[in-house]
Design goal:
binds calcium ion, Rossmann fold, globular, 41% helix
Length: 241
């Protein structure tokens, strides 16, 4: 069965290019130019779960003629775990953070390549399938081996000692490998709700983790910075074994 995408984009040219490109990749695309059209399609989806017409992912532009696409994120999140990708021309970090904290899976700033969009779709769909089939306990990426239940990390076959907080931070990023996680989400989940403003903790611990895990901490390949937004553990298949 084809993976079905709900695409919301008011720019006619971009909508057509995205629809055609994604259909060429084997996706089925239901495209809309307005918030009201997308809301109607989504409400139908939410009311008819498990129908073959159901969407697997939502791709939404923010600036739409009849409102802001971010309201669609809240509609999705209030009722389902359907992945949501935001495509936007807005560059400011504040709105990206708000969207991610509101439950968007990821964002792409226009202009972006179709290859980049496909990679983000793949990551978001994998995140969704992991919620149904939890990840394997053993993760191998490049020179790194991580055993989550045993809390064991090896690099090039050698045991790496991580403090409990370092390990918890690593595990939190791995739970969404390939996706950006905001500073606020990381601080809340690793340190607790009262620490969400303590971004300096995060910087300190990321420096330590990189020193222990990266081959060259100055040029990280695993623990990537999303400037002003948060961090992203690289896509798990992005490095050769
Ligand atoms: Ca727009």
């Amino acid at each position: 069965m084809k993976i079905r995408i709900l695409l919301v984009e008011d720019d006619l040219t971009l909508r057509q290019v995205l629809k055609q490109s994604l259909e060429l990749e084997g996706f089925s695309v239901d495209s809309h130019s307005t918030l009201s059209g997308a809301r109607a399609a989504l409400t139908y989806h939410l009311n008819t779960l498990r129908s073959p017409d159901n969407f697997s992912i939502v791709i939404v532009d923010l600036g739409l003629p009849d409102g802001d696409g971010s309201s669609l994120i809240r509609l999705v999140r209030s009722q389902s775990t359907l992945p949501v990708l935001v495509i936007s021309a807005r560059e400011d970090d504040g709105s990206k953070i708000d969207l991610l904290d509101a439950g968007a899976d990821d964002y792409l700033v226009k202009p972006f390549s179709i290859g980049e969009l496909k990679a983000r779709i793949r990551v978001a769909l994998r995140r969704q399938s992991r919620e149904v089939n939890p990840p394997t306990d053993e993760i191998r990426i490049g020179a790194l081996e991580i055993n989550l239940p045993k809390r064991l990390v090896k690099r090039c076959g050698e045991r790496v000692h991580l403090t409990p907080t370092e390990f918890n931070l690593l595990a939190r990023l791995l739970a969404q490998a390939g996706q950006v996680v905001t500073h606020r989400q990381l601080l809340n989940d690793v340190w607790g709700a009262e620490y969400v403003e303590h971004v300096h903790y995060l910087r300190l611990y990321m420096t330590q983790l990189r020193a222990k895990l990266e081959l060259d901490p100055a040029v990280p390949e695993l623990l990537l910075t999303e400037t002003g937004v948060g961090y992203r553990f690289c896509e798990l298949r992005a490095l050769p074994d």
